[in-house]
UniProtKB/TrEMBL annotation:
Organism whose genome encodes this protein: Amylocarpus encephaloides
Any single Pfam family the record assigns to this protein: SIL1
Family: Belongs to the SIL1 family.
Complex formation: Interacts with KAR2.
Keyword Transport tagged: yes
GO cellular component: endoplasmic reticulum
Name of the molecule in the record: Nucleotide exchange factor SIL1
Keyword list, A-Z: Endoplasmic reticulum, Protein transport, Signal, Translocation, Transport
Keyword Oxidoreductase: no
Cross-referenced Gene3D superfamilies: Leucine-rich Repeat Variant (1.25.10.10)
Length: 340
């Protein structure tokens, strides 16, 4: 204690008289050298197969498959707007039953089909898919497909539901027969063939906007491998070439969509195209492609494209399509003055 302040203070470690000698006497005789003692361990056998890899190198033997689309969730409900889900469900029912609200239902589905969730739900309803297919084809529906642009809207819904929607494409597998062979209200009462019906109505397709929507729907359907195989086996590409050759500037939008269809599904691998499936064979001679009975052959695509590129040099997409076809065939088409 500090007598001057009355506070307790720590005493400095200053040896007092006699303490230092006592401390030295206590450690006298102890060793002052430092050393390390090694204790021998018994030898252990090494089993490399039992050694576990580092955590970063550990991969599950059966890793789960990766789903790029992920889980498709219903859209978040907006309390300030009408109930979309109720509208959607009522529209599906109206289309399948062909009720009085049929045309309004097509309008509503045209707006909603762009959403991934609603697109998947549309494809899940086989009856709705079949009705939309019949209207797209323009046959046997009990209602005039051309009235109120019904065929246009039906094609738009189909194309929108499948476009950029891998989950909907998976669902399409179970409903494909309702598209390839839909049971429309025909005189025979039997199912019709999708490709054959398209071919039978080539000359009746006079509305460029409607035909454009149908081409988009076909392009979306071609993403499904089994539908694509059926389409190619039945020479469906000849139908698209017939659409391409329709005369008039008003069909430029149709030609461009057909070009996108060919690139997306058959020529551009970066876009997920099935490269190598089409075209097959060589380019058809120019004089053959000028004949009415053979001008739609697969080997005539480059011939007709060359004429179009020559007459419409500003259509860059057509030049790119021609170059891609030439690359796929491995033999570029040469300009022939007779066909120009």
């Amino acid at each position: 204690m500090n007598l001057a302040t009355g506070l307790k203070e720590a005493r400095l470690n200053i040896p007092m008289e006699g303490e230092e000698d006592a401390a030295l006497e206590a450690i006298k005789g102890l060793p002052t050298e430092q050393s390390v003692v090694v204790v021998e361990q018994p030898e252990q056998e090494y089993y490399p197969e039992l050694e576990e890899p580092a955590l970063r190198d550990q991969v599950p033997i059966k890793a789960p498959s990766y789903d790029m689309a992920g889980k498709v969730l219903p859209p978040i409900r907006n309390p300030e707007s009408a109930d979309e889900m109720t509208t959607f469900q009522n529209s599906l029912l109206a289309v399948q039953s062909r009720s009085e609200g049929f045309d309004k239902a097509l309008d509503d589905l045209s707006e909603l089909a762009h959403d991934i969730y609603y697109g998947v739900e549309i494809v899940k309803h086989h009856g709705v898919v079949e009705e939309l297919t019949c209207f797209t084809l323009g046959v046997g529906t009990g209602k005039n497909p051309q009235e109120n642009d019904r065929d246009h809207k039906a094609a738009l819904i189909l194309g929108s539901a499948l476009q950029n929607n891998p989950t909907a494409l998976k669902e399409l597998i179970s409903s494909q027969d309702h598209i390839v062979h839909p049971t429309c209200l025909t005189d025979s009462g039997n199912g019709i063939d999708f490709v054959d019906t398209l071919r039978s109505r080539i000359d009746q397709e006079s509305n460029p906007s409607t035909l454009k929507s149908k081409v988009v729907a076909i392009s979306s359907l071609l993403r499904q491998p089994s539908f694509r195989q059926d389409f190619l086996e039945k020479d469906g590409m000849n139908i698209l070439l017939a659409y391409f050759l329709k005369e008039g500037e008003q069909f430029h939008i149709v030609r461009k969509k057909i070009g996108q269809l060919v690139m997306d599904n058959f020529l551009d691998e970066d876009l997920g195209a099935a490269v190598g499936e089409w075209p097959q064979g060589d380019i058809t001679p120019a004089n053959v492609c000028e004949s009415n009975d053979r001008r739609l052959e697969d080997g005539c695509w480059e011939r007709h494209l060359l004429k179009y590129v020559t007459s419409s040099p500003k259509q860059i997409w057509a030049q790119e399509l021609l170059a891609a076809l030439n690359k796929q065939r491995g033999k570029p088409v040469a300009a022939d003055h007779k066909e120009l």
